[in-house]
Amino acid sequence: MKIVLLDDVAKVGKRFEIKNVASGYARNFLIPKGSAALANPAILKRVELMKHKYEVELNKRRAEASQVINQLADSIIVIEAKANEQGHLFEGLDRAAIAAAVKRETKLDLNPEWLQLERPLKAIGDYDLAIAQGDSQSRIKVRVQTLL
Predict the structure, then answer these.
(1) Are residues 54 and 73 in the same domain?
(2) Which among 11, 36, 59 is the end of a domain?
(3) What angle do CA 121, 125, 131 make, to 5 degrees?
(4) What is the pTM (predicted TM-score) of this model?
(5) Smallest Cα–Cα separation from 106: which of 60, 145, 140, 82?
(6) Which residue in 11, 16, 26, 53 has the fewest CB atoms around it within 10 Å?
């Protein structure tokens, strides 16, 4: 059965692709779930419009992300957190906490997924973190201090 995917479906294909799948799989799983539609001329025309709208929105989000990342280039974000005498934080700082601190200090919305962080920050000190979204890349400095 020929279908158009409306969402990314694992082991089938990506959004807006035309695929041949088993009719039972399409009728019982993909179409009721809203992940696909039967491929007919009217649907194909509607999907082309949806695809164009999706690409415009994606380009707009990439431009906004690039602008935010460029504004944050080489900025220093200071985060105060509770720590013991050895400098170990009682609570690790993950991507969401760092993004919230960026928003507090710079009033810019930084998506936590853009931060390149392998594991949460768990000690006082200075950290050099990479920010990346698509082709835009930058670095920020995060200074973790003891809460006074």
Answers:
(1) no
(2) 59
(3) 55
(4) 0.71
(5) 140
(6) 11
- Indicate if 126 and 87 belong to the same structural domain: yes
**Edge-first strand listing for the sheet containing 76-81:** 76-81, 136-146, 125-133, 115-116
Ordered DSSP codes for 49-73: HHHHHHHHHHHHHHHHHHHHHHHTT
Determine the Cα–Cα distance for residues 3 and 37; give it in Å rounded to an integer: 6
User: What gap in Å lies between CA 125 and CA 57, rounded to an integer?
Assistant: 39
Which amino acid, one-letter code, is at 121? L
The secondary structure of 77-109 as a DSSP string is EEEEE-B-TTSEEEEEE-HHHHHHHHHHHH---
Q: Identify the residue whose tokens are 């009721």.
A: 32
Half-sphere exposure of 145 (CA within 13 A, CB side): 10
> Residue 64 domain-assigned?
no
Distance CA 81, CA 91 (A): 8
pLDDT in tens, the chain (148 residues): 999 999 999 999 999 999 999 999 999 999 999 999 999 999 999 999 999 999 999 999 999 989 999 998 889 999 999 999 999 999 999 999 999 999 999 999 999 999 999 999 999 999 999 999 888 899 999 999 998 6
